[in-house]
Amino acid sequence: MSDEILTVIEVAALLKVADKTVYTMAQQGELPAFKVRGQWRFRRADIDAWMASQVARTTKKTEATRRPKGARK
Fold first, then answer.
1. So where are the chain's domains?
2. Separation of first and last alpha carbons in the chain
3. Exposure pattern of 26-38 as b/e (b: 16+ CB <10 Å)?
4. Distance from C-alpha of 4 to C-alpha of 43, rounded to nearest angstrom
5. What's the burial of 47, exposed, middle or buried (CB within 10 Å: 0-12/13-18/19+)?
6. Fewest CB within a 10 Å sphere: which of 8, 23, 31, 63?
7. pLDDT given for residue 17 in this prediction
8. pLDDT at position 60
9. Domain 5-65 adopts which CATH fold?
10. Model's pTM, two decimal places?
11. Which sign, positive or negative, has the C-alpha torsion 26, 32, 37, 39?
12. Cα–Cα distance between 35 and 53 in angstroms, integer?
């Protein structure tokens, strides 16, 4: 497995969000990131793991909020 390093712009394209969103999330510690001479960098493996955790978290929330069939609203 390669240890690919991504830039803010590359992560933004991967997540399909604005680069400002990625920058803000990195600053706030919401994305796994590190700085190289003041510029944010991201390990691809860390971003892939973060995405998987977000999917699992969202799926778990969705399943917890589903009502059983026949339940009243």
1. 5-65
2. 49
3. beeeebebeeeee
4. 6
5. buried
6. 63
7. 98
8. 73
9. Multidrug-efflux Transporter Regulator; Chain: A; Domain 2 (1.10.1660)
10. 0.77
11. negative
12. 23
